[in-house]
Amino acid sequence: MRPSCPLCGSEAGLAFTKLGFDYYRCPCAFVFIWPRPSGDQLLEIYLRDGQEYWTTEAMMRFAFSPTKSSREIAFLRRFRSSGRLLDSANGGVQAIDRNN
């Protein structure tokens, strides 16, 4: 049985496997892990992999650099159609000037 997309409910197909997790892609283009890891598994992953990755000096400079935010805004403007954008905030939270 193939999983249903958590966004639109369509049947999704296996896209790839990475680090022991199966990633599925829906016809709506959303990619998600199935089965979804438990809260305890997610905590373990974030503590094991995330803290070390995000706390290096080089990563902090990169993640919070004005240049990175400007590139992200330019990318979004290039590919937007209309309407609103949903950001699920899976990465670091950064302040972005709304007037940019």
Describe the fold and architecture.
With 100 residues, the protein is an alpha+beta fold. It folds into 2 domains: 1-36, no CATH class; 38-80, no CATH class. It is 37% helix and 14% strand. β2 (21-25) and β3 (31-33) form a beta hairpin. It is flat. The termini are far apart. 3% of the residues are buried. Mean pLDDT is 79; it is low at 92-100.
Briefly summarize what is shown.
The protein has helices spanning 39-54, 57-63, 66-79; strands at 13-18, 21-25, 31-33. It is of the alpha+beta class and 100 residues long.
* Uncertain segments: 92-100
Oligomer: single chain
The helix fraction, in percent, is 25-40%
- The number of helical segments is 3
Number of strands: 3
Content of β-strand: 5-15%
* Rg calculated over all Cα atoms: 17 Å
- Biggest sheet overview: 3 strands, antiparallel
- Helix-strand topology string: EEEHHH
Q: Distance between termini?
A: 45 Å
State the secondary-structure class.
alpha+beta
Strand order of the largest sheet: 1-2-3
Rounded average pLDDT: 79
